[in-house]
C-alpha cells in the first residue's frame, strides 16, 4: 500500500501510513479514555474473557492479513478477470473517482464501503449459516473497545471480499482507502467502548456507544437493530434504528440461548463450521 517515502501531502511520517501502526495508537487511546471517563464505572478493565479478545485483536488485526494476503490477491485477480469478461474492462481501468480530489475520494469510499458493510451485517443476522459465525461477536457480555475485534476470522474475510470490487472500480487512491480503514476502526472501537457518547444531533449520521450497545441486547426479538458500522444513517433510513432514551443500556448483553454455545476460544474458532445451533 505504501509507496515511496512520502505520505499524505508529505506531512505524515511513513510509519503512520501503515494500518497496523494505527491499531496500536487507537488501542492506547481507548484504553486511556476508558480509564479516565468510563461510562460504567463498576466495569473492570481485566474483565472475564479479556484474554480471548486480546487474541482476536492480534489475530484479526495482524495475523489474518499475513495468513491470507496471498488469498486476497488471488480473489482480486479472479474478480478483475470476471469483470473484464462481462464488460471488456478491468476495475483499475474504470477509476470512476480517480479524478476527484483526495478528500472527495475519502468521502465517497467511506459511504460506499459503509453501506456495503451495513448490508453484510444485516445478512449475518438474517441468514442462519452466517449467524453461526457472527454469534462469536455477540458473545460479548461486557462492552469495551477491544470487543470491536471479537469476530470470527471468516466473517472478516467476507467483509473484505465484499468491499474489494466496488473500491477497485472506484479507483480510490491508497491514501483514501487507508484513511477510511483507520476512521472505520476508530469508530468501531468507540462504538464498543465503555464511553458515554451519543453525538447529540449527529446521532442520525454517526454510530455511537449509546446506540450500538442496543445492537447487543440479548433480550431483543427478531434479527436486531442498529446494524450501522460507522454511519447510523442507513438504520434511520431503513427503519432498523433504535436508541432508547435514558442513562443506561440493555439489562443483558449477548444473544438468546448463548449459554448453550461453548465459550472456549478453541471451540469458538472452529465451532461455527460444524455446529448449527
Describe what is shown at a glance:
The protein has 277 residues and is mostly helical. The protein is 52% helix and 0% strand. It has helices at residues 19-36, 50-87, 91-94, 102-126, 128-134, 153-170, 174-192, 209-212, 233-237, 265-270.
Explain what you see:
- The protein has 277 residues and is an all-alpha fold.
- The chain has one domain.
- The protein contains 10 helices and no strands.
- α4 packs antiparallel against α6.
- The protein is globular.
What's the gyration radius in Å?
19 Å
Poorly predicted spans? 1-5
**Could you give a short account of the major beta sheet?**
none
Q: Into which percentage range does the β-strand content fall?
A: under 5%
Which structural class fits the helix and strand makeup? mainly alpha
Helix content: 40-55%
Averaged pLDDT: 86
What's the quaternary structure here? single chain
Domain module tally: 1
Q: How would you describe the shape?
A: globular
Q: Count the strands?
A: 0
SSE arrangement, N to C = HHHHHHHHHH
What gap, in angstroms, lies between the N and C termini?
40 Å
The tally of helices reads 10
